[in-house]
Amino acid sequence: IAAVAAELGAGRIVIYDSVGTMLPWQMSELITALRRVTALPILVHCHNDHGLAAANTLAALTAGASAADVAVNGLGGRAGNAALEEVAMALERLCGQATGLDTGGLRRLSTFVETMTGLKNSPLKPIVGRYCFAHVPVMHVRCIAGGNPEAFEPFDPHLVGAERSYGFCLPVDYS
User: Fold this and answer.
1) pTM recorded for the entire structure
2) Number of other CB atoms surrounding residue 173 within 10 Å
């Protein structure tokens, strides 16, 4: 289909995982197969119904996709789409690919989008969640105070505009 689409003048191929059922290795295989038959740019659009949107987006990009739809805080239909902040930080930190994004503003951008939409992130959300750089266990605190934050933080919180904190309380509903 992709080869015929290219012959007929298509400018790009768009792959939708509209219900979030692809697995990362399936996405990688699909993009690799498409790359074998077409040089057209490939864009991916992944939904997060099974919590795999960011993983599938990364699998597609590392297999040769040219672009991906992402959304701040993963906002999108039903369970959402691939989160900009997750995909960008994984590309930069884990894949060694520069995105050109000023990651220092990610926490601020996330908070702005929460305010504008009224949709609050989980405090445990990766990259921009309120507790992402909060440390409670004594071992965590000792390592960080001892100069080894890498033992319990994937990167310096300032890279995303966050601050490290110590101690937090999860809300408890006793009703």
Assistant:
1) 0.86
2) 4
